[in-house]
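Students often ask why we bother predicting the structure of a whole assembly rather than each chain alone. The short answer is interfaces. A chain on its own may look different once its partners are present, and contacts between molecules only exist in the joint model. In this exercise we take two input lines together and write out one structure for the complete complex. Read the inputs first and try to guess which parts will touch.
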Amino acid sequence: MIDPRLSVLEKRLGGARRIIAVTGWKGGIGKSSVASVLALKLAARGRRVGLLDLDFSGASDHIILGASDVFPEEIEGLEPPLVGGVRFMSAAYFVGARAIHLRGEETTDAILELLAVTRWGELDILILDMPPGLGEASLDLARFIKRAELLPVYANSVLSLETLRRSLDLSARLNMQVCGAVENMARAPRPASVPGVKTLASIRFDPDFEAATGSPEKLIATAFARDLRPAAEALC
Amino acid sequence: MDAVLCAASKAAKENGLTRVDEVVAVLGEMQAIDEKAFSSIFSDLRENYAPVFSRAGLVLETAPAILSCKACGKDFTFAEGRDALKHEEKEAVHFVPDLARVFVQCPACKSPDFTIKQGRGVYLKEIRGAK
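Now the answer. The structure tokens for the assembled complex follow.
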């Protein structure tokens, strides 16, 4: 038996010039906020951008972007709708507000299914919003999308930096490339240093971010988005 | 279909086939694929993939969906709960069968924690042809 999904991945992702996986491995570090706003920033700079939420159990990009009244169009697969200028795909389209509880291999199957069914077309950058941890999604990324570049998000805390250090070590063993890092919830004038990785942007806590959630127009005008600008410039 | 033809093309090339007579695919019940539409798309697309497929036929087999409850151990069929699903829920399972866990529960203990033992998706079973 041959799983045909594996044969079509290259074709489905072939139109994306770069694939950036926003990760960080630790939960609650701001991966989804960074992934969503980075996608909006790049789209605002005229780039063709796709965003795929791979955090099934904690899917939140659709809430951040306010993607409530859209659904992918079925044309020999699924074409993601434009949200704030970003081609956006998520399993949340199919389940609404319900929780998605997947076990190990089912996560791999769901990732493969979404990758195989989604027709991105031509993109300058496809951003993958990764779930926390080093489980299926991280390992499947290394297995199925070898050219993906990691963009870890971290905070200046012992726990976050230690998780980052261990995860970057594993990523090197998996031959994953790292294109930089983003510090979130920054308190110091200079970002905490991450050995071997350049911090592309340092984002301070933005008390107005919550109120902008759900509106691409408001999100792009936040201090959070302004702090993220150097990362968007570096990735263009 | 795109994925099946991609996989079949790759397998034909790897096996040095100069002519493919038949492609055998297994359709998992959970994806509820329309066999007539699937066959029709195969006929329309086959020549675009490679000349070796120009006269290839398609044989479809169906794998019934069997689910296994992780809580009580009972095996049950997807068909038992399918009729209770709304149209959009069936669509969700069609596109991503694993999302059945969101909508279906074990008929014995009502747990939503089950695995799909068989009948999940589409597989390429065999291609027959000449070298």
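Check your guess against this: Helices of chain B lie at 2-14, 35-49, 79-82, 87-95, 100-103.
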